[in-house]
Every structure is written in C-alpha cells, then in structure tokens.
Write a structure and sequence with these properties.
The complex is a heterodimer of chains A (508) and B (169). Chain A is an all-alpha fold and 508 residues long. Chain A is built from 22 helices and no strands. Chain B has 169 residues and is mainly α. The chains are: A mainly alpha (508), B mainly alpha (169).
C-alpha cells in the first residue's frame, strides 16, 4: 500500500489539495499537533538506550502495536490517492487493498514468530539484522541495508512533500514552509523519542484515521441511499466501472494483487514491528486485530471512491478537476466541516507516521547495519542514531523541496524495491534451511538491479511496459527465481551453515 | 525425532516449496506471454489467477509447518482460502462482463464485483486469522518454545563470553 501512497503523493505534485484554512480546520489541526508534542515529550523521557530508540525496548503491548502497524501500513494513500484511483479506474483499484484479507495472517505465519524469537535470542533490531543472522553473513546484511536505503530515500522525500501539501492546505503557509514545519515536528519526536514516540503517535494517528474513515463511509452511504443505490447510479452511466477488473486489464489488476500481497512480506516498516512486541505469546491475536483495524481504515478508500463516482454521475457533485480531489471535494461539499478537519488531520497524521517510521529504519541501517557489514560496531548507537535521524530528515526535506518531479520518481518504486530485495531472502530464507547466503545475495542484487534499471528506463521513456506488466512484478518474480536457482547451485549442509539458535527458531 | 516424523516434516515443507516455485514460474509465464506480438494471450491472466493463490498458499504453508505436526489442521483453512481465491479470480475471468442497470445486485453490487469484494476481499478474513488464533498454542508458539530459545541463546552468550575471555588471556 505504501507504493500507492507514493504514487498518490506523486499525483499531489500536479494537483495539490484545496485550501481549507477555516477556524474549525485550523483548530483541529492545532489540537492534533498539541497531542503529538505531548506524546513525544512523554516518549523522550522513556528513551534511554539504542534498543529503546529503534525497537521500543521490545516492550510494546498488543493493542498499541496493532494500531501503530495499521497506521504505518495504510498511510495517506487510503485517504487521498486511493479513492482517486478508484474514481479513475473503478473496481480494479481495489486489487491494491484486497490482499489485506490474507497478508496480515500470512506475515504472522511466515515472519512474526521467527523475527520475534530472533529478537529474543539475539537482541536484533533491524530487518537486515535478521538476514545477517540467518545466513551468518555481514555482507548479506549490508547489501539488504543498502537496498533498503535506496527505497527509504524515496519514501522520505515523497512523504516530506506530502506533509508540505497537506499542511499548506490546512494552514495556508505555502508548500515550502509546510515541508519544513511538518518535517520539523516529525524530526522533533523522532529524535527525542525514537520509535517509541513513533509508535504511540501512530496509535493516536491510527485511531484518528479509523474514526474518520468510518464516519466518512457512513456519510457516503447515507447521502447515496445505500450501496445498492450507489451501484445503480454507476451502472446506469458507466457499467464497466463496476466490472470485475474495473477499467483495468485482468493482468494489471492481478499484478496489483501479487505485488501488494506477496510484497507485504518485505516491507520493513511492517516487518520491523515484530521485534517490538513485549510478549511473543500475544502474537496469537495480532493478525485478527490488525485485519479488523485495516478494514475500518479502508472503508473510506472504497466508500469515497465508489460514492464520489456515483455522486458525480448523478449530478449530486460537480465533476472533479483531478482524481485526487475525490476526498477533499466530497468532504468540502457534503459532509460537516469538522469531519473534513478530522480527515485532513488524519492525512497529515499518516504522512508523519510514515516519515517517522522510515527515518527510524533508515537511521538504523546507516549506524547499525552498514558498520556491521564492514566489520565495525559503533560504541554509542543511541547518540549516533539521533544524529543520523537529524541528517536524514534534513536531506529528505531538501530533496522534497528542490528536486521537482524527481521526488515522485524516487518514491514510486519503493514498495516494489522492498518486495523484490527482501521477500525471498527474508521470508523464504527464514523458513527454508536450504537457502544459502549466495542465493540471498543474488536475490537481493537482482531485485535492486532489475527494479532500478526498469524504473529508470521507464521514467526516461526508454522503455514502455506492456499492459498489466510492472517493473515491481517482474523484479519480484526474477528475484524469487534467482534465489531458488542460486541456492540450489550452492547448496550445502544446513547444520554447518546455520547457527544452532537460528536453526531452532526456523524449525519451531 | 523419529525418522518417519522427520520425513513427514520434510515432505510438508518440500511440497510447500515446490508449490511456491511452480506458482512463481506460472506467474513468470503469464508475464512473459504478455510480450508476445499482439499483446497478452487470453490464457495469460489465467496463469496468474491460479499462480497467485498457489504462491500465497505455498509460502503460508512453508511458514506454518512445524515439528511433527506439519501444518496439521491448518490444511483445511489453507485449502479453503486457496479455493476461494482461485475460484474468485477464475469466476471474475470466466463470467460474462455484462454489468448493466438490469444487473441483479448482491449485497449492493453486481455479481462479479460482489465475488471480488465479498469473496476475495472478505471471506478469507473470516477464516484465516481465526484459524491462526485457534491453532496458535499447538501449531505456532508455546511458552516451552520460548524457553528453549532463551536457553540456547544463554548458552551461545556464555560461549561467546568465554571465547572473549580466552582471547584476552
């Protein structure tokens, strides 16, 4: 879903949100920032070690972790870009979120237990840490870290830009100031309270998003006279919209399902959270609660996308100037202003939540994984973590402000890059003792190279993808095949290649 | 662990792995076919329609397999979800695309849309997370598992401490 968030962010480059600087909206926005600051001050007082900073001291409870995870997974895409995409391509856009019916529990079976137990046994803090431990290979850990950094740079910059756009819409301060205000607030809580501040701010933000989503969905159904009437309005003007694939080809829609389904196992902002759960036995209810939370947050995605299409077709709303105006136009024309304020704060919340998560993960790669790859270990990881966090946030803000459409390009391939570089090596590797470090490195390298090469060629119009085929999907498939092939070619005795504690965790 | 138990675990994991490899090959075949002159042939999306649920099912089974139980009772929810996803995609591909104002609505949506949203999007939610929670203690994790991991971690730590002491001496 984050990829689509970035695509939505990219779309914001062209459209921007309408200004909504009215007292109610500004008041709700200020109240929101006040809560963020309060949570951050509290978290900063509890952050004393690198483990506190990067994995919340392995001490987060089930509910907090679940809500935070929902908040990070969904991001601003569910509120702005997603409904706009449904408005444009119809039901085909649902294939981005439909895998959520499977992905949370799949992640729990494939990764959650093993990652959490690796954290228990080895005190691991990062996703590349797990790859390093599994393959007994600092080089694999370093390569995974580099691949993640490439994706994180794009995410950070695009989220910084999205913050600028949303804060400008609420307060009317200009996009440039919006970027620095948003990044400044995110940075303050990221540096002071690390992931602990991030998690509890995510809990607040996720709750806000869920409430806003449910309220907007109920309003849409009420205004439209129920889903049946909404469907009838659409079917009478544009029946293809409600076809099984919407206006997309079956191959394209199925590609969405594959990349966003299988790819979920490689998204560090989600996978990394498994380390943080206080009691591993609480994993029992994690998939159920997270799936229910996601459904609530995604109600707006479906409701607004389908609802606005019907309202425009039956004349209740004026035609949109751009697809990304679906949510803002609906909120500003037919719902109470306080609900609009809640949703706009929710979007700001989502971008900050995503930025915080990626700042933290990126800082951990720079000061933890890369030194380990070169055989070094920094002495004061907390101090260095804070310093790198500041540098990464400033770099992201500068890129967002100065590199024009290149920001969108950097962000677009994030999800696919994480998927193709991490899914085979991490998700299959932790469950198959025949996987080798050569296979893992070949897979990570293939994912990195193929994604960058195809996306760059596509960006500079040197290559056009055929309908339904995407760089992310091709890279993911090739990465899988390379992983299996090279592991088979370099197969060796797993008892000698894997440490006993890691072996036990893989067998459980 | 007896030889037959080890054999059964190996079979479960091997079957899951083979399924995953074949499914990825099917998906790759679907994409490769799209490069044929004249565009993707009609069978290309069918390869994805079967390949994607197989890949997801394969990797889930690989993750869920453990000890002498293999995937145990989880074979039922896994089979259910595989059937729901595969038949959902295949029905979406195979049923005629004739949505219109005359279409019968199922819970507010025309038939193919209802299959996609309620079948593919919602039915697995009713089964999978509940199956995960109900089988968690026997199939996924127990306190004794955690104790075993902690014991081994402590042994590793003490061996590493002794190694460091030896180096200093």
């Amino acid at each position: 879903m984050i990829l689509a968030n970035i695509e939505a962010t990219a779309a914001l480059l062209q459209t921007s949100l309408p200004h909504v600087k009215q007292p109610v909206v500004i008041g709700v926005g200020l109240a929101y920032f006040a809560v963020i600051i309060g949570i951050s001050v509290w978290a900063a007082r509890r952050t004393k070690t690198a483990a506190d900073f990067f994995v919340a001291g392995h001490g987060i409870g089930l509910i907090a972790l679940t809500v935070a995870s929902v908040s990070t997974s969904v991001s601003g895409f569910a509120f702005i870009g997603g409904p706009g995409l449904i408005y444009t391509v119809g039901l085909g856009a649902m294939y981005i979120v439909l895998p959520a019916s499977v992905t949370n529990v799949m992640g729990a079976w494939v990764l959650a237990k093993r990652m959490r137990l690796l954290g228990e046994a080895r005190g691991l803090m990062t996703v590349p840490d797990a790859i390093g431990a599994r393959y007994n290979s600092p080089a694999s850990q370093g390569l995974a870290g580099i691949a993640m950094l490439v994706g994180i740079i794009g995410y950070m910059a695009t989220n910084a830009l999205a913050m600028g756009v949303v804060i400008n819409a609420i307060f009317g301060v200009g996009i440039g100031w919006g970027i620095w205000i948003g990044m400044g607030i995110t940075l303050a809580y990221s540096v002071a309270g690390g992931i602990l501040a991030g998690i509890y701010n995510d809990v607040f933000q996720g709750t806000l998003m869920a409430v806003a989503s449910v309220l907007v969905f109920v309003f849409v159904l009420k205004i439209g006279g129920g889903l049946g009437n909404i469907s009838t309005s659409i079917l009478s003007h544009d029946p293809k919209f409600l076809g099984a694939w919407g206006k997309m080809t079956p191959l394209a829609a199925l590609s969405f399902f594959f990349v966003f389904g299988m790819g979920s196992l490689g998204q560090p902002q989600g996978v990394h959270k498994y380390y943080m759960l206080r009691d591993p036995m609480q994993l029992k209810w994690y998939p159920l609660l997270k799936t229910l939370g996601l459904i609530l947050v995604l109600l707006l995605y479906f409701g607004v996308g389908v609802g606005v299409k019907a309202f425009v077709l039956n004349g209740t709303m004026a035609p949109l100037s751009a697809p990304d105006q679906a949510t803002p136009s609906l909120l500003l024309s037919v719902t109470p202003l306080v609900l609009a304020a809640l949703v706009f704060s929710g979007v700001a919340a989502a971008t900050m939540s995503a930025a915080n998560s990626f700042i933290n993960i990126g800082a951990a790669v720079v000061m933890h994984d890369l030194p380990i790859a070169f055989g070094k270990r920094l002495k004061n990881e907390l101090k260095w973590g804070r310093a790198v966090t500041v540098l990464m946030a400033i770099a992201a803000a500068l890129i967002a402000q100065n590199s024009g459409t290149m920001v969108a390009f950097l962000g677009i391939f994030g999800w696919g890059l994480f998927a193709s570089t991490l899914v085979p090596a991490l998700a299959v590797g932790l469950n198959w003792d025949g996987a080798t470090r050569e296979g893992a490195m070949a897979s990570i390298g293939t994912g990195l190279f193929v994604t960058l090469a195809l996306e760059t060629a596509s960006y500079f119009k040197a290559f056009t993808f055929l309908s339904g085929v995407t760089a992310s999907a091709v890279a993911l498939v090739l990465s899988f095949l390379m992983f299996f092939l090279v592991s088979w070619l370099t197969r060796r005795d797993p008892d000698k290649a894997i440490d006993p504690d890691v072996r036990l965790i893989m067998e459980l | 662990m007896s030889a037959s138990t080890a054999h059964r675990i190996d079979l479960t994991r091997r079957a899951a792995r083979v399924t995953l490899v074949l499914a990825v090959c099917a998906i790759a075949g679907g994409y490769a076919a799209a490069f044929k002159p004249g565009g993707a042939p009609i069978w290309a999306p069918w390869l994805l329609a079967v390949g994607i649920p197989s890949a997801l099912g394969g990797i889930m089974a690989l993750g869920a397999a453990r000890g002498s139980a293999g995937i145990g009772k989880l074979k039922f929810p896994f089979a259910f979800v595989f059937v729901v996803l595969t038949s959902g995609f295949c029905l979406a591909l195979g049923l005629p695309a004739n949505e219109s104002i005359q279409s019968t609505l199922w819970l507010g949506l025309p038939a193919r849309a209802a299959i996609v949203i309620y079948g593919i999007g919602l039915l697995p939610i009713v089964v999978l997370p509940v199956a995960y929670a109900l089988t968690f203690d026997t199939q996924t994790l127990s306190q004794s598992d955690i104790d075993r991991v902690r014991e081994l971690a402590a042994l590793r730590l003490s061996a590493s401490d002794e190694g460091e002491k030896g180096d200093h001496e």
